[in-house]
Amino acid sequence: MTNLGEGTERPVLKRVPVPPARRRLSEQAGLREVMGQFATGITVLTAGGEEGHGMTANSFTSVSLEPPMVLCCVSRAARMHTAIVSAGGYAVSVLSGGQRELARYFADWRRPAGLAQFDSVEWTPGPLTGAPLLSGALAWVECELAEIYEGGDHSIFLGRVLASSRSTGTDTLVFYNGGYHHIDGRVRATA
């Protein structure tokens, strides 16, 4: 059993292997397993303003260098969706290898709502957006919202990059096969 706090417990679920002949890619669970084989970086998306919010996300990518643009995908049911639309932009903190607990914190729906969720973490307001930029991250990007595209149950937020910076760190945090992993950026793959 996993304790959820306040005396509430739920059973720990175990994944039962499915024979390859029975796996179907069209099912959401099957697609989740397939996509789990694609390692992605971990970011925390943030928005400032009255609807200020933060959210762990691995659905983030560069779109264009000229003009500088990035995108992130957010469920339309998520509080982050409303926060980005309300603020008219967002910031991205690319997490370092030692920030696993920070990733978990911003993925936990039980954290405080609004800007109060940032009370227990170190951050500075983005100089152009006011969105929280998390201390200790590898890199930061501030964006104004350029376009919103429908993408199934998510929205694709295309952001025009207003500012970007990076730290001197090299260790990164990635998500792969359902878990967080630390990668030492000084180690290079060999051919």
TrEMBL record:
It comes from Amycolatopsis samaneae. It is an enzyme of class 1 (oxidoreductase). The keyword Oxidoreductase applies. InterPro entries: Flavin_Rdtase-like_dom, NADH-dep_flavin_reductase, Split_barrel_FMN-bd. The keyword Nucleotidyltransferase does not apply. It holds the Pfam family Flavin_Reduct. Coiled coil: none annotated. Residues 1-20 are annotated as: Disordered. This is Flavin reductase family protein. Residues 35-182 form the Flavin reductase like domain.
